[in-house]
Amino acid sequence: MYKLIRSFFFLFDPEKVHYFAMSMFRILCSFAPTRKILAAAFKPSASNLATEQWGICFPNPVGLAAGFDKNAKYLRELEVMGFGAVEIGTVTPLAQPGNDKPRLFRLVKDKAIINRMGFNNEGVKEVVKRLEAWRSKRRQSPMIIGGNIGKNKVTPNENAWKDYEICFNELFDYVDYFVVNVSSPNTPGLRELQEKDSLRKILSHLQTLRAERLKLSGSTIQKPILLKIAPDLTESQLDDVIDLAKEIQLDGLVATNTTISRDNLSPESQEKAKETGGLSGLPLKQKSTEFVRHIYEKTNAGIPVIASGGIFTAADAKEKLNAGASLVQVWTSFIYEGPAVAKKICNGL
Q1: How does pLDDT run across 267-297, given as a tens digit for each residue?
Q2: DSSP-derived secondary structure letter, 111
Q3: Is the pLDDT assigned to residue 221 strictly greater than 90?
Q4: What is the dihedral of CA 302, 306, 309, 314, to 10 degrees?
Q5: Domains, the chain, ranges and CATH?
Q6: What is the pTM of this model?
Q7: What is residue 156's three-state secondary structure?
Q8: Active-site residue 184, yes or no?
């Protein structure tokens, strides 16, 4: 059924279709009877998939990566679709429109996407309003929410830590974990923040902020801080990140973000492959798995990893988990496989 719907959707602009499809699903979910029917249809049938990590109980190990719900608009709908976690964002302190359109491209033959969105979002204060409303209405929801945070395009790198601080403080009471995004290829100069000294400044500062907030509140809920890394790091750069993560006792890594590589694409994709931006989807699967395995082996399983990149099936998810991942995330496969992707993967697991 979804293949038929997809063939129709793929006739139109990808970004417009995204908002249209989610708006239609939101209408369906606004009626309680319809919402219950959909939730039952998308709910994974396996009952033993709950996964505990960082003291957080994930209903299942399949999450939705950042970039799909940048502004926390579709939390109810994504919960209905059966995701164990949804990572909102990337969120920046100030609203920004992102890069010029068109900025999202399908490489259908390769089951891939190129995006150069550029952290388009409504700003952290608007996102907080939605999260606050969600938390007040859905206190019993088991779905885990992650906050993916970044810097505004106009903020110079030497002041980037201030942007991450703003987003961290604003989101702290409303998300279950944080992901620091310094690895998107679509914000000029952002990946320079993956240098060891720059990372140490940002991450250590956030850890200090967390410790201060927990001390004041008396809470024992840690709010783990993770770092999302690019698949284009050299082995020595990756080892620098791992060494830093061990040194400062970082809670985890997300491997990986999109790639600027265009290797191993089909001839049918060569024209669109000329578009600038980050490539995601099936072509990223092997590289992402290699990064997960390297981190696992280099740290002796000491740093939890959320695997992201090329996960379309339960077999793909198992590959990541066997390589050492604790949890997995999908994004591009949602576009190609449809809203039942989490259920299909969970049932296969």
Answers
A1: 999 999 999 999 999 999 999 999 999 999 9
A2: T
A3: no
A4: 100
A5: 51-348 (3.20.20.70)
A6: 0.97
A7: coil
A8: yes
